[in-house]
Amino acid sequence: MEEVFFELQKIHRQNERELNRIKFALKRESDRLNLESQQKYKSELDKASLQYKRMFSQYKEWQIKESDRVSKLKIIVPDALQTTYEKLSLLEE
Q1: What is the DSSP string of 58-89?
Q2: pTM of the model
Q3: Is residue 85 within 8 Å of residue 77, measured between CB atoms?
Q4: How far apart are CA 58 and CA 53, in angstroms?
Q5: Residue 92 pLDDT greater than 80, yes or no
Q6: Where is average pLDDT lowest: 7-16, 64-73, 76-85?
Q7: Which long-range contacts (CB under 8 A, 24 or more apart) does 82-85 make?
């Protein structure tokens, strides 16, 4: 009876060692994949951030130019409509 117990105990310990080896390999692979994913995410985030800054800078430049262009525009009101224009301008105030 004792021999059966020791044989089963030996098999159990071998199985535990194998299980621990598999768990360790899976944990190591999981850690590697997580690190790889984090590095890829950071790289993509950096690219997107750079692109956003570049586009925002271009937008601001366009906005300034457009504002300058619009501020230089003049409204020419025909003499026949001058009185109407003046009345409407007073309503804005």
Answers
A1: HHHHHHHHHHHHHHT------GGGHHHHHHHH
A2: 0.58
A3: yes
A4: 9
A5: no
A6: 76-85
A7: none
